[in-house]
């Protein structure tokens, strides 16, 4: 039971460390944010598959971490940051309307997911989490397919 809570705390620390490098290196910042998002998605996926026991606090932190990334991630794609050690697809800069729409959808989906959280997080259920997280995870897959360079 402690493992998911510790993982949730680790996600928060990773997300906060992004602000330390944000001004110096937007590529590193967005990579750090995606690392936090990926860790949260991994925990969420493990919960969905039954590989990790459901814990309402950990489940809530998955959604909260992904929401924090959703609202800050788009700020770290300035002109010129398409060059360098990045997997960001050039379409982010050349097809910015579709990129902005995908980012807005990520923000909307994470906001909707957070809206499923009850005032007492301890009463959050696995079924509620599955419904909320499933849509957010699908959004992540779509964005990676359209705006991330595969190896």
Automatic annotation (TrEMBL):
Binds 1 heme group per subunit. Residues 1-22 form the signal peptide. It comes from the Bacteria. Heme c binds at residues 140, 143-144. Gene3D superfamilies: Cytochrome c/b562. InterPro entries: Cyt_c/b562 (IPR010980), Cyt_c_II (IPR002321), Cyt_c_prime (IPR012127). GO terms for biological process: electron transport chain. Keywords: Electron transport, Heme, Iron, Metal-binding, Signal, Transport. GO terms for cellular component: periplasmic space. GO terms for molecular function: electron transfer activity; heme binding; iron ion binding. This is Cytochrome c. It comes from Propylenella binzhouense.
């Amino acid at each position: 039971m402690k493992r998911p809570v510790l993982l949730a705390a680790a996600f928060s620390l990773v997300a906060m460390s992004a602000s330390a490098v944000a001004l110096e290196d937007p590529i590193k910042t967005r990579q750090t944010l995606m690392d936090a998002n990926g860790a949260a998605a991994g925990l969420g996926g493990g919960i969905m598959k039954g590989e990790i026991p459901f814990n309402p606090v950990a489940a809530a932190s998955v959604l909260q971490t992904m929401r924090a990334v959703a609202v800050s991630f788009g700020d770290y794609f300035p002109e010129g940051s398409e060059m360098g050690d990045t997997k960001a697809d050039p379409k982010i800069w050349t097809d910015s309307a579709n990129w902005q729409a995908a980012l807005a959808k990520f923000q909307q989906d994470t906001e909707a997911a957070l809206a499923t959280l009850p005032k007492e997080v301890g009463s959050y259920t696995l079924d509620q989490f599955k419904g909320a997280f499933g849509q957010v995870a699908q959004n992540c897959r779509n964005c990676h397919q359209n705006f991330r360079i595969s190896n």
